[in-house]
Amino acid sequence: MENEYREREDVNPMDAVRGKASRTTYSTEIPNEKSGKKSAKKVAAANSSAKTKTTAAKVKPKRQNILIQVLNGEILTRDFVLNNLTFIFFILLLLMLMVAKGYYGKQLQKDITDLQADVDARTAEYIENKARLEESTSRYRLVQALEKRGLKETVNPVKVIRLKRKDNE
């Protein structure tokens, strides 16, 4: 029922998103409740006034696409950009810091990986050297090395001789 009271031309729903003015015109006529139909003269008058309004709106210079303005550099001359230039520089600084933080994090991760590989290699080397030492200092190897010098392993266990000391001496 609302559509009876207004006369529409082709309206793109994305115009509101892009910031373009709506081209919808509303008639100022009050509908006749008894007949329910508009007279042909009123409809023709409304159509002609709506067409003149839309042709006047079409005469306005069309705003360029935002992408074209960015590529041309025209966006930099707008008052909004000029008034908020310090804020824009601040945002750019934050973006650069964020990128630098990402690279720094990658570098730290690489350093951690390299150091972990180095620690693993040194741990393996330590375990290998410890095994060699235990093998070379085993009882059997020591007995073989001392036989060349003429020393033999004792068969009897070692006895400890303890002397009691007197307090006077």
Automatic annotation (TrEMBL):
This protein's superkingdom? Answer: Bacteria
UniProt KW keywords: Membrane, Transmembrane, Transmembrane helix
InterPro entries, per database record = FtsL-like (IPR045755)
Residue span of region Disordered: 1-49
**Transmembrane stretches, by residue range?**
80-100
Q: Where is the composition biased (Basic and acidic residues)?
A: 1-11
| Protein name listed in UniProt | Cell division protein FtsL
Please name the source species: Fluviicola chungangensis
